[in-house]
């Protein structure tokens, strides 16, 4: 069962790998990117927080889009190759949290957006049009623990977090 709330979150630094993907290829591409990022951070001795995160700046249901597959880190090591340093901004967020199959995260995100609309929340984003998707100031999935294999694939705790305008 999902829970919804509004809360203040502090800024969190992260190291990420940008991933260009489609919705159909998303699970495989993200899994590969986490493996690549884990190896990169282990090689540099970086201390990570939680099991990972995925940041969305925009999403296209029927075209290629880019996400940042990330690990929150204590201190930001110098980045090289195709990796980048970023941060989840401090601010007030709408948050949905659940424990369950990761295959349900799309529905959880939709439910969070619907809940936010019903509460009159103002998501920090720039609306797109027929040529461009919406652009989100800060929308991410945070995985506080590592997943386990369940009857419907990988599952575990996830928090979907969307920055609000204040």
CATH architectural grouping: Alpha-Beta Barrel
Total number of β-strand segments? Answer: 11
CATH class: Alpha Beta
Q: Briefly note the CATH topology name.
A: Multidrug-efflux Transporter 1 Regulator Bmrr, Chain A
How many helices does DSSP assign? Answer: 2
Could you say how many structural domains there are in total? 1
Structural class: alpha+beta
Strand count, sense and closure of the main sheet? 9 strands, antiparallel
User: Which of globular, elongated, flat, extended, rod-shaped describes the shape?
Assistant: globular
Return the string of H and E elements. Answer: EEHEEEEHEEEEE
How far is it from the N-terminal to the C-terminal residue, by CA? 28 Å
Radius of gyration: 16 Å
Q: Strand percentage, roughly?
A: over 45%
Percent of residues in helical segments?
10-25%
Average predicted local confidence, pLDDT: 91
| CATH homology superfamily | Regulatory factor, effector binding domain
Describe this structure in words.
By secondary structure, the chain is of the alpha+beta class. The chain has one domain (3-163): Regulatory factor, effector binding domain (Multidrug-efflux Transporter 1 Regulator Bmrr, Chain A, Alpha-Beta Barrel), CATH 3.20.80.10. It is built from 2 helices and 11 strands. It has helices spanning 26-43, 105-118; strands spanning 3-9, 12-21, 47-56, 65-74, 84-88, 91-101, 125-126, 135-136, 139-143, 148-150, 153-163. A hairpin with an 8-residue loop joins strand 7 and strand 8 (135-136). The protein is globular and about 45 Å long.
